[in-house]
Write a structure and sequence with these properties.
With 204 residues, this protein is an alpha+beta fold.
């Protein structure tokens, strides 16, 4: 009997802890979104530039921890430089392929390639930055047809967390003039609906 009581006590302690962790996660995503919205209203940082005063706010899917997935990292050594086409046909951007990320969603295996910018590799602040552009089954429906982006960092081990709640729109989703947004490669066309992160912007 004493053992049962002890187990129940541990479970009772664990429930608030789990709720606290979930609450902290939601708060961190909400804080991130508020920062993004603030930057969009700043002409010096906004994708809208001098039209930042017209910004009506981004739309987001509800925060869902299920879309924070753990992926296995398959490194792709060699580091050959290649170009990713952008929304501007005259301005491709150079990257190296860092790794292929393997993860499972609802019992199905999926892969995404993650890249390193040739330009940013030479900037100390971004030396560990990884770029993950993708499309999914929401692209062109609830989300921007040109796909969305995620920013990751070089992991310490053989796994990495992909948090789709942080997925955001390319600048071209707001105005096409002056921006050259990388187009997600065919390898990063997911056959799943990522109902997380930023939705398409419909502001004027």
């Amino acid at each position: 009997m004493a053992r049962i009581v002890a187990v129940l006590a541990l479970l009772a302690m664990g429930i608030p802890m789990a709720l606290g962790q979930s609450g902290a996660y939601h708060s961190s995503i909400e804080k991130h979104r508020k920062k993004v919205e603030k930057e969009f209203r700043n002409p010096q940082k906004s994708a809208l530039r001098d039209q930042a005063h017209t910004f009506t706010g981004n739309s987001y899917y509800p925060i869902d921890p299920a879309y924070k997935v753990l992926a296995r990292v398959e490194l792709t050594p060699g580091g050959e430089v290649f170009e990713i086409p952008t929304s501007n046909p005259e301005r491709n951007k150079k990257y190296t392929r860092y790794a292929i990320l393997h993860f499972t969603w609802e019992g199905q295996e999926h892969t995404l390639e993650v890249y390193r910018s040739v330009v940013l590799q030479g900037v100390r602040k971004y030396k560990d930055h990884l770029f993950l552009p993708f499309t999914d089954l929401t692209s062109g429906e609830d989300t921007y047809g040109g796909g969305r982006y995620l920013d990751l960092e070089v992991p310490d081990g053989e796994t990495i967390v992909i948090d789709f709640n942080l997925a955001y729109n390319p600048y071209c989703a707001y105005r096409s003039d002056g921006w050259a947004c990388p187009v997600p490669p065919v390898a990063n066309r997911l056959s799943m609906a990522v109902k997380a992160g930023m939705k398409e912007y419909h502001g004027k």
